Amino acid sequence: MYQIIDGKKVANEIQENIRQEVNKLSQERKKIPHIAAILAGNDGASETYVNNKIKAAEKTGFQSTLIRLHEQTTEKQLIEEVEKLNQNQDIDGFIVQLPLPKHINEQKIIETIHPSKDIDGFHPINLGRMLLNLPCYVSATPYGIIELLKYYQIETTGKHCVVIGRSHIVGSPISILMAKNNPVGNATVTLCHSKTKNLKHYTLQADILICATGSPHFITAEMVKYETVVIDVGTTRIKSKESKSGHKLIGDVKFDEVAPKCSYITPVPGGVGPMTIASLLKNTLLAAKKEIYK
Ligand code: NAP
Question: For the whole model, what pTM was predicted?
Fold first, then answer.
């Protein structure tokens, strides 16, 4: 019988611990962590993600600031907003919600964020420090996956971990972390992508399968072996009459047919997603405590 990896429960526990720490800071009249987010444009999914992050931050007692910019904001105007947050002593860390409107160069914006405030961990300095196992902000989704594996005491040493997807924010960093000589790590990693030939050949070898493609339900039962640990990062947002919001999220994995073959599996929603938010809050707390960049 498979076990569900309950990301919502683990994220709630992490957020409760953060809330207690913030409470203590408040009692000691110390500075309360302050997170900011920039939302440029009016993408519905981005709006939901940012609101969820801000809501979670406020629930833990953080101060929060949401900066909304219109779709036609120029790259120069966005850079100016980022610079303002870099210089604002009261803001401990901030995110620029991606994707950005098409006329803005995302990489340029990411590189404008000061690494000490880059709580998404997307800046080349933070990614490079992660590669070298130096203190850094690990990007929130990979960080959340590592925390889930740790919480459920899932053995990773010597296991074959197959990652599908090589983005800078999920697939590539998680493949690096899984191979590192860390307590959750020491796996032998195969990184697959859209040009991989005969994907099933690799997925069938996976002891741990991490899917981060955004191709809904493309991992089927015949692609996984028995007792595999499946981490489904994919979240494709589709219209749905069943939910109040009018949308629902679909994972990369056909959960109903894959789960019976697994030892552990994350659901969508309620798996990796909530951990991404919890990890972002953890990074903000680290930023406020100046534990990474003194
Ligand atoms: P991305 O930048 O679009 O990257 C997708 C990756 O998957 C690419 O490397 C692509 O290969 C590969 N790929 C796509 N279709 C494939 C297929 N059929 N077979 C093999 N490889 C395939 O996406 P991302 O930003 O990493 O996000 C991936 C998914 O995770 C999305 O659904 C996103 O919404 C979700 N996500 C969820 C969270 C969360 O908190 N739960 C956080 C971040 C992202 P190429 O490189 O060759 O194009």
Answer: 0.96
